[in-house]
Amino acid sequence: MTGYRTMPFHLETERLTLRPWAESDAVEVNALMAEREDGKTRTVEHTRASIVEMIADMESTGIALLPIRRREEGDLIGYCGLIIGRSTLDEPEIACELFRRAHGRGYATEAARAVLGAAAATGRTRLWSTVRDWNAPSFRVLEKLGFERDHVAAEDDAKEKGELVWLTRSLP
Length: 172
Hints:
Shape: globular
Largest sheet: 5 strands, antiparallel
Distance between the termini: 22 Å
C-alpha cells in the first residue's frame, strides 16, 4: 500500500449514495456495459468476476470506483470513483459513467464532487482525468469541478476514436 489514507468508500450526497460494489450488482452493471457497447453483452458471470476483482483492488490500493444509486429510488445509475487507469496510484484518475437515462440531471457532477472530497481525504494532492475529444458532456462536468486541460495524446492502439485529452486538478 502507499503512504496515503484509504479513500472513504461510503459517500452520500443530497440525491445519491455511493458505496462499495457487491456481486449482486452484476446484472445492473452488465446492462450499463451493454448500453456503452451498443448492445454487446458479456455474461453476468464475467461481470460478477470483474466486480470481485474490483473489490480486491479496492482493498489493495485504497481507492475504488463506486456504484452510484439514487437515494430515493434506490436504482443503480452508474459509477464514479478513482482508478489507476492511465495514471498512477499517487495521482489517480477520476472516472464516471452513467446510464443514458440519468444524463443531463447533474448526477455526474454531484457524484464526482463527492469523489473529489474522498480523494482529498486520502492526502493526495492531484488527480487526473482522461476524456476523448468528442465527449463534450464529460468536459463540462470536469470543468465545473475545476479540472484544467493539461495535454492531448494520440493513442495508436485506441479502441475508441478521437484524441485523448488529459485534464488535471490540484487537491484539495
